[in-house]
Amino acid sequence: MQESGDDDEPGSGGSPRRRIRDLLVDTTPLKHSPAFARLWFGTSVSQIGAQVTIVAVGLHIYELTQSTLAVSFVALWALGPMILSGFVGGALADRYDRRTVALVTACVAWVSIATMTTIAFLGVEATWPYYALAAVNAASATILGTARGAIQPRLLPVQLLPAAAALAGITMGVAITLGPAIAGVLVAAVGFAWTYLLDAVLFIGAFVGILGLPSMRPEGGRSAPGLASVLESLRFLRRAPNVRATFIFDLIAMTLGQPRVVFPAVGALLIGGGAVTVGLLTAAFAIGALLSSLVSGPLGQVRRQGRAVTLAIAVYGACIALFGLVLLVSRLIGATGSADRTIVPALVLAGIALAGAGAADNISAVFRTTILQAAAPDDVRGRMQGIFYVVVAGGPRVGDLIAGALATLIALWAPALLGGLVIVVLMLVALRVARGFQRYDALRPTP
Q1: Which candidate, 436, 416, 236, 269, places its Cα nearest to that of 342?
Q2: What is the pLDDT of residues 342-376, one digit of tens each?
Q3: 217 half-sphere exposure, CB direction, 13 A CA radius
Q4: Residue 198, SS3?
Q5: Is the distance from CB of 174 to CB of 112 less than 8 angstroms?
Q6: Residues 301-330: pLDDT tens digits?
Q7: What's phi and psi for 122, nearest 5 deg?
Q8: Between the N and C ends of the chain, which has fewer C-beta atoms within 10 Å?
């Protein structure tokens, strides 16, 4: 007689406990590799502080200028250095010990945060130092992320990469849930300087994760950093349609569906609630990402990962458009708030839309990351990760500029509503046109 428990009867579909366990995030990568576990934990801690600073800088610039366009200029200052550092960082990661590359750039990132904290305590009101330091921090974070992304496939077997990507989704979900909320509360309670200081303290987690790694020199032929190395990576990308598609599709989503620069104005002029609303809207996106990661167990069984990316981005666009629709309806019916008065129904609906967008974006990220790490050979993996981080970090900054311009020229609702609808249309077209990417098979990964 079979005892009750985790054992399954034939044809039963599994016991309730087994089905729930299969639904939840797979933590096997943490058990398989202690080095990966330390890296994941350290990154998780430091990313909370990074999100605190991202939100705090936007709020700080808005307080100094009262301009949404000025907030979007944070992206403009950072964009060039980030693009350059993505290519340079990738070349460095394919030439030198990736642990060393990560450690050096982590030091640069920490110094930029510490300097921003210092000038905030000194009461500096000129905006350019904050723009410049945010750019340095973004550039060094890009190189750091490039090195970490190239390290991860060396710590885990290929079948655990989707689970590792889902764990990364938890990292970002927790960070973007807690970080903006903490930033909103701290800015309102103790000011910008103490808020920046928290990031400087939490960044210690990044050092813990990196120092726990083994030496990680790239495999195969190592090209010297320089223009030739960058050109070689671009030639590889031209021959790698599946890897290339992950970059293009993410650029579409991030440049056309990135409404975060309107959050300060939405909190001040439309939904109301000020800095607290900014934190809640940003956190709503992350809550969706976090929840989708917590129930990401079935994602490891998906074979048509290219099609999954396409559908997830289409859902993302629909949710972003819904957020814009909430703002438009609030404006049309005259339900506007202020820094001291919040329109709660609008805030709830906007939060639900952004949570859906966060969940869809995270699912897309799980599959895009897996395709890149499984399909790219180790000798170009650093450079592919560099391009990946240029897209992931640079795309939203271009999106910030587009959103800031549309919000200034048309209205606060325009960037989300118009951009989201365009994303949906483009993904529906991609389902029919990008047939090779739709057929990508996780069991036979090809670049």
Answers
A1: 269
A2: 777 888 898 999 999 999 998 998 888 888 878 77
A3: 5
A4: helix
A5: no
A6: 778 888 999 999 999 999 999 999 988 888
A7: -80, -5
A8: N
